[in-house]
């Protein structure tokens, strides 16, 4: 990690989230879904978090948003430790971090209009005005004609823009992007990623960008953290992780990136893959 | 000239490829039209006939007792054993029965929906407790309970409504629970939770609207069953009490004269059949409509076509 004077907006320290399950004979088994994860996210920075399915990324996200209770460890937002706060204060601090969901098809209530979806966080916080909603949608590249439409009338990319507008409604400092483009077409992915880059500059946002598509992570991230079985096995700058991976798991992840040009493939492709 | 004329013809055909698919959507199967006609006929009769001057369900013309239908011009559907106009009594019975049934179904669905949503959304111990209660409820023999209570405090309409309203919510609660259990982990329900919404807010805005559609479908198909049930209770003397008529009670009264005047039992029987069968036919449309795969696909095709 390089030394930078920038303020830390989100810090996770030695976080442990466990689930206990009961086996067939009644014996309790503890699953360490998040096992001692620590990282710090600085203002304006993008931290890419990669790892295979089931490695604990989603549990980490749910814990940051208070949907799971950690066994130990702490989450600090703008220097405030969430666990020790009164519920009202905690809400105010918690709202500095917002989430963009992976699946734009299930993250928007099909019965509500785009206006009502984006207005919801404002209404919850008691800060609703029609103009705010319109300007939020404008921010993500959707015009005034989008306001009265329902999710079914939008494409996947447009829906994800609505999801981003909803996350931006309360002016957060941090956006947690839970695989925000993995459900989209490749052509639309690029547009959404560029939108995210623009928004980051405009609002000086920090991103915790969770993905398994390593090429997208490389494009967007400043630093990359690699997660395996609930632990961060490697954290470093983008170039460091991609060009000189230290951990064997990172190396195998990188080796699994499909390369379009067969001659550039690192490992010799088999006949089957060629055809 | 001909070549130019053909161009406008070509465009509609190309765009029209989706039309036969879209046209298929609004077609209502004949059975459902028949069902709706049956329902509307009974409802119109029950609520329309009392508006006519001929409506008189209580006056007794003992000299005209047990007149068969079609014999007396003033009593087209005949008279009962006390000479009361059978058509008027059928219509009034319809209002009474339908009113009772709708009241029971409304109370049951609201109660079941609330219990089911609380159970499914909160989960954990509360869920176990409420669903345990539902199982106990199912194990309770409703008819025996009603007979026992009727013996203790005397039979009345209100007792029947109360017992049925207190026991028939289980079906609604189970459906509401499973729907809200599924919704609870959906992202669009998590989003307001993450953004600080209270449980009440989330339930009201995102769970109730989605559950209530299911409740409506269930209620429509339940009305028929409750009509049959209350009619049986009336027949047994546990529900509506004479001289107020209900369909079940009319059958019960006519039973004594089934040899001299079979129409007294047959007419209310036909009316019950019309409503229950009509509701069944109509509700089949609701249940197939609510299947998402069927409902969504024609809509999306239409929209895509429109956007172009």
Automatic annotation (TrEMBL), chain A:
InterPro entries: AAA+_ATPase, ABC_transp_ATP-bind, ABC_transporter-like_ATP-bd, ABC_transporter-like_CS, Oligopep_ABC_C, P-loop_NTPase
Name of the protein described by the UniProt record: Peptide ABC transporter ATP-binding protein
Occurrences of domain ABC transporter (ranges): 12-254
Family that this chain belongs to: Belongs to the ABC transporter superfamily.
Record lineage: Bacteria, Bacillati, Actinomycetota, Actinomycetes, Micrococcales
Keywords: ATP-binding, Nucleotide-binding, Transport
UniProt-recorded Gene Ontology molecular function terms: ATP binding
Keyword Magnesium: no
PROSITE patterns (alphabetical): ABC_TRANSPORTER_1, ABC_TRANSPORTER_2
Pfam families: ABC_tran, oligo_HPY
Lineage top rank: taxon: Bacteria
TrEMBL record, chain B:
Record flagged with keyword Nucleotide-binding: no
Keywords: Cell membrane, Membrane, Transmembrane, Transmembrane helix, Transport
PROSITE patterns: ABC_TM1
Predominant cellular place of this UniProt entry's protein: membrane
Membrane topology: Multi-pass membrane protein
Localisation per UniProt entry: Cell membrane
Signal peptide: none
Protein's name according to its UniProt entry: Peptide ABC transporter permease
Annotated source species: Frondihabitans sucicola
